[in-house]
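Could you show me just one protein sequence together with its fold in token form as a worked example?
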Amino acid sequence: MAERRRTGQTDLDLNSQPANDFVALLKQLHTVIDPTMGAWENTYLDRPGQVARGDVAMFERLPVQVQRSSKSGQGALGVSDSATDKQFRASYANMLRMLKKLYDSGVQIVAGTDAESGCI
């Protein structure tokens, strides 16, 4: 595992036996998943200097203070280079794939944390 971290690999085999066993256990225990994807999307994908993904559609209508905050990357993981950026984006994509696997497998999912623009 340590070697994978050093090389920046982000592949995750969701069809592996450990992944399938984990999903089966969640289902067997009637575990309810509250995935908070709205919070994780901002954390993994927002970048300083860019409009936050959740604010793009309404950015021009937001108060200037909220616009500044939206472009600050506040709450996002620090990205020092393009390899790290690629790894964070791939990690979030893996989260989405796992959530889809849980849903398709019949694990109960409830609404998680919603992202907000700061003025709602």
Strands lie at 32-33, 108-109. The helical segments are 2-7, 17-28, 37-45, 64-70, 82-104.
